[in-house]
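@channel sequence for tomorrow's demo:
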Amino acid sequence: MNPQPVDSGRDNGPVAVASGSTAPVNAESAETLEQVEHVGRRPATRGRLVLRRLLRNRLGLAGAVIVVLLFVGAFLSPLITPWDYRTQDDAALLMPPSPQHWFGTTKLGEDLFAQCMRGLQKSLLIGLLVGVISTTLASVVGAVAGYFGKATDKAMMWLVDLLLVLPSFLIVAILSPAFRGKSWLLLVLLLSAFSWMITSRIVRGMTLTLREREYVLAARFMGMPAWRIIARHIIPNMASLLIIDATIGVGGAVLAETSLSFFGFGIQPPDVSLGTLIASGTDSALTFSWLFGFPAGLLVVTVLAVNFFGDGLRDALDPTSSRARRRSRVRGATKDGVR
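structure tokens (generated this afternoon):
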């Protein structure tokens, strides 16, 4: 005789499945559950749900706040400091941090705070542009290869495989002297050219699935051009992935630009970036520590903040990712307790 469920007279919310098991939860069902929880309040749209999840993620929110503060400080610093990054104060050579020079001065009397803010401007701009350009290129190439398939897919994936095996850092280092003295935007193009291949493979795999969906087949049968199907039905359904990739790509681009500038292949004097400042302060790291400490600290804070924001944004856009990590930690702790 099968036991009958007992009605307690109250609503216990979503019913769990059989004892000891948990029903699989995907992103759509997780969002549906959150919308059900907010019945009677303001309608919970996807944008509000994403914002609510991001605000609940302390590391992600802290990363977003720090990134905004870094952008604001870097571009508004000329309004709050009387020193230009090229101005030399002959009466303050290698001076430690003081009320006149907040980060101290260099051996030429240049204000290190003004130079760090100028270098942060360059690094953030290059990182942002590389992140956007590389993600855009990856989405276009991956979606076109996955949608058309056959010869188009083979040709594009052959190009991706070729670029993946090339030593990108070495190639950029070899080509950068040819652009010395020219616009730093050429460095952006070089970094973008070698930053999109892995994402394009992921986009291609998702496109192979999306192109078989009913709405894509319906649009094709209605005679909609292929480029419009890709722009209106394929790429928008991968917006979460692309946003996360662009965000995390900013941190990687900042590190790549800093590394190139450190070895003399990126931003060239008289302009400065965090990489050139770290390189010039390396020899004095133990004697005049502020020359190395402030630009290196800004680099660490910038990359960590961008990565924290990217992780928080991923969890906000895909609630199953944070649940999966929490479940794996719980299972690991349980196994350790059993042992």
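heads up for whoever presents: The chain has 14 helices and no strands.
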